[in-house]
Input
Amino acid sequence: MTAAACLAAVELPEFGAAGPAPELPPAIHRERLARLRERIEAAGYDRLVVYADREHSANLAWLTGFDPRFEEAIAVVGPSNDPAILVGNENWGTAAVAPLPMRRELHQELSLPSQPRDRSRPLGERLAAEGIGRGTKIGVAGWKPLGASGRLDVPSYLADELRSLVGSTGSVENAIGLFIDPADGLRVVNEVDQLAAFETAACRTSDGVRHLILGLEPGMTEREAVALLGWDGTPLSCHLMLTAGPRARLGLLSPGDRRIERGDPFTVAFGIWGALNCRAGWVVANADELAADVRDYVDRLVGPYFEAIAEWYGAIRVGQTGGALHEIVASRLGDPFFGIFLNAGHQISLDEWVNSPVAEGSTVELRSGMYLQVDVIPATGTPYFTTNIEDGVALADAGLRAELARRFPDAWRRIQARRAFMAEQLGIDLHPDVLPFSNIPAWLPPFLLDPGRAMTLR
Output
């Protein structure tokens, strides 16, 4: 059993800021294409069609290094030759400089409304030229599975055209599992270079949340507070979230012009490609500033929550099942008061939520190279509001750890310092497989105007 949590003085060290993000070698994208082709062949697909738009570009970006801006894009992957990439007017140039060589085709129907559409071949003609025709079996990767294999999550103009081309003797199937199956999807097990890039991203988001909490003052507007995150223009994985007062209970909203008041509930989330960090609490210095009916906030909500998260951290490792992690949270926070209803953790990548192996009864075993988000959110729906720790951790076996330490020594030093902090100050002992990427690892100050006191098991 996990020791009882308490609120105590905790010194959060400076773990070190990340420098420039490691660039992925172009060879990685060629290797990814080769692995994808192996999966395509094993699934019996003649071609794979990858659809992307601004909100759902992670699969295409992972594969090719190109993510469409403003427009949609369609890639067609066959058994040989460079993949074809169909782009609109404004992505013609950016697609040309992708790390993965692709054959560009201008398809202006992908462009914004009312832009020129006078220089494109019809979509059906272009897809047919890529070998999509009668009797072929086509996989389609949108962004999420929908149960039955024939249910697609791509626009009708694409789905209808593909079904028309293959006819009654062919098939068009949802193939997103090739990328995001929670057990072995290509994107849920990362190369060492990708993990190093994600660690850099996590430094930026977690340092931003740290700076915000340490600099938060009543009287700031929400917009003034969110500036403390120090966003530097790195592509976001989700919109910036920061709210205080009545709107904070809604969770996902963007900051406004309201001034933050002493006594407000408060929540913030900062996510860029490869990382997200979130914290929630009260804009007070101690429980005496809370309403009388929630002055047991730490004992009633935050303490049990922290104990569950600490046990989750202690249990995660290579070979652990998603079902075991679910059971830890369900057994500790299963009371309806806590309002836990989403997965107790999920895989994270360029997109904030890739998939989740964590569910009741899940037998999916966690693998070396996976990168997961600690993400257990109480939705009490009561005056107690909520509490929250969202940080990223990677899993690495001995071989992957040795490679990371050798090739990225600065990141390795930060990881080891975080592990020591969690063990020595928070009382959370991690399996050697677990690599915390956040510079606020499991740091949870419930009273945001006194960040020197945080939850601990010590």
Notes: The mean pLDDT is 97. Residues 241 and 254 are 5 Å apart (CA to CA).
